């Protein structure tokens, strides 16, 4: 099952009413969506709100998703439109956060705007990046090459096997071992 | 656990594989720790590709989940209120609509009675009722008199005054056409007066001559 196959399977499950399958899609695409939105919206804390809105819209529209395009291209389209709409509505609204009278009853400040650009978060993000880079540097060459060809070059297991002149099983194992080694360094930061 | 993580690594990498993926997916959905592992694996790739935002939000998934649940509750509330509206409108249809119809009908009846009564009981109306009774008696009397065929010209007031009870209304001039015309008119009037209330059943010919 590939990534697109995994997406299709998860989408199918969500369409059948399995909400937890949507969590996996959010886990998979959250950073990519936030990254895309940050090209439209400069304020990082707003990026996360727009990203949240994107996933809510995607969840609501998922019933109509027929799989004519890849899930992620469909999701990116929603993200781009939501970001553009956000910019348009921000230019119309006053700078303060407005809550409609009808929605006030159902409004919870906890899931609303938060300041994610606080120093702790910025520091944590920097630490994560440093840790990953350091962990990659400390990997044996064969693992480092395998994970780099996969993540940066985007090669498939078969292509990596050709490049590294080794069986696919070995590629699979090397990529996993590389991830596992980096993850061992990363986990303490996030727990 | 290592085996499970290896599977996670594979499905993340677009690697065509086995039926085991279904069980991997199932355990991934139910196991939060595996979801965190997947998130970290994803994060490693994002950092390597320089796709990591400047500031990350670790509880993003939980936030989306909470929003969805909140919206689901909101949706249920909307559906419930819509259902209540539906029930009350059904109640309205069943009970109030016929009652309102009856009230309107009663009001129309009252208006009809109150507006028609004054015209029937205007000053001198007793005389009118008496004259109706008289004419009724006269009609009965006339019915007993044998019919005598006599041609009368219906063209002026003087002629009308000469009319005697029991005289036949024959048309002197242009006889066939006029007769047909008058007959058609009488038949039409008779049919129309039967179907419509408030129209006198008898005909009064004021003038018929085409001079």
Textual characterization of the structure:
- The complex is a heterodimer of chains A (191) and B (211).
- Chain A is 70% helix and 0% strand.
- Chain A has helices at residues 3-15, 19-37, 44-61, 71-92, 119-137, 141-151, 157-164, 168-190.
- Chain A is globular and about 55 Å long.
- Chain A starts with a helix and ends with a helix.
- Chain B has 211 residues and is mainly alpha-helical.
- The termini of chain B are far apart.
- Mean pLDDT of chain B is 72; it is low at 148-152 and 154-160.
- Classes of the chains: A mainly alpha (191), B mainly alpha (211).
- Chains A and B meet through helix 1, helix 2, helix 3, helix 5 and helix 6 of A and helix 1, helix 2, helix 3 and helix 4 of B.
Quick take:
By secondary structure, chain A is an all-alpha fold. Chain A has helices spanning 3-15, 19-37, 44-61, 71-92, 119-137, 141-151, 157-164, 168-190. Mean pLDDT of chain A is 86; it is low at 107-113.
Q: Could you give the count of β-strands of chain A?
A: 0
Biggest sheet features of chain A: none
Query: Strand fraction band of chain A?
Result: under 5%
Overall shape of chain A: it is: globular
**Which sheet architecture does the biggest sheet of chain B show?**
none
**Mean pLDDT over all positions of chain A:** 86
Show the largest interface. A-B, 69 and 54 residues
Task: Name the assembly state.
Answer: heterodimer
Brief descriptors of the model:
heterodimer; A: mainly alpha; 70% helix; B: 211 residues
Fold topology:
The complex is a heterodimer of chains A (191) and B (211).
Chain A: H1 3-15, H2 19-37, H3 44-61, H4 71-92, H5 119-137, H6 141-151, H7 157-164, H8 168-190
Helix pairs in contact in A: 1-2, 2-3, 2-4, 3-4, 5-8, 6-8, 7-8
Chain B: H1 2-12, H2 20-30, H3 32-48, H4 60-120, H5 125-144, H6 157-162, H7 175-195
